[in-house]
Amino acid sequence: MSRFGRSGPPPIRDTYSLLVLNITFRTTADDLFPLFDKYGEVVDIYIPRDRRTGDSRGFAFVRYKYEDEAQKAVDRLDGRLVDGREMMVQFAKYGPNAERMYRDDHRGRDSRRRSRSRSGDRYGRDRYRERDHHRRSRSRSASPDDYKRRGRDRSPSRSRSRSYSPDDDRKGGRDSLSPARRSTSRSPLKTPPPRKTPPPREGSPARRNDDRSPVGRNDDRSPGSRSPST
DNA sequence: GTTGAGCGTT
């Protein structure tokens, strides 16, 4: 998918990978190509997609031929408004050529001290991670689980719903809680509501009102309202 | 039709 129109991934001899984050889910490599190509020689652009849906994950990888151009693109395109969203450009930390970056890190370090503060504190995007730890909606958190499920038990329709509690599968609690939960909702129509039985507060002073309680209920329970004979 | 931290091959 990293091909702009070519076939197969280009050779990674001296290319530097840039990680583009915060891009829209609709942004494609073709949209980022003209943007990054203006600041340097883009060797390849790759956008990881979902294995199931095939949609973009919201980030892309841009490979530059030289680190100078790559670093420049980071400062220039970082925070750039694309499709109505600011994309964050940064050097790829992991990857096939990640080792190369560490090698030149000693000389590319001084180039980093740039006006990075202009973007980041103003957007305040960092506050989201602290506020919500479980903010993940449907990211690849369940992706690895889906693969394992498919190998042991093929249940595509159920694998999605079971992603929330993969522990019950091995515990066998699946069958245990089934009858328990079913007993309550099994016959909600004929069986009285499973309301929690109130603790016996006979010794409670407030219970003295019980003297008038049966009176009020008795009135409500009068056959007049129970059996409205027409 | 949605979502929003991260790290990559069809």
UniProtKB/TrEMBL annotation:
MF terms (GO), sorted A to Z: RNA binding
SMART domains per record: RRM (SM00360), RRM_1 (SM00361)
DNA-binding is among the record's keywords: no
Main location per the UniProt record: nucleus
Annotated Pfam families: RRM_1
Span list, region Disordered: 99-230
PANTHER family named among the record's database cross-references: GLYCINE-RICH RNA-BINDING PROTEIN RZ1A, SC35-LIKE SPLICING FACTOR
Subcellular location(s) of the protein: Nucleus
InterPro entries in alphabetical order: Nucleotide-bd_a/b_plait_sf (IPR012677), RBD_domain_sf (IPR035979), RNA-bind/splicing_reg (IPR051106), RRM_dom (IPR000504), RRM_euk-type (IPR003954)
Residue spans of biased composition, Pro residues class: 190-202
Biased composition (Basic and acidic residues): 118-131, 143-156, 165-174, 204-223
Entry keywords, A to Z: mRNA processing, mRNA splicing, Nucleus, Phosphoprotein, RNA-binding
Highest rank taxon of the organism: Eukaryota
GO cellular component, one term: nucleus
GO biological process, one term: mRNA processing
Protein name (database record): RRM domain-containing protein
Record-annotated RRM domain positions: 16-94
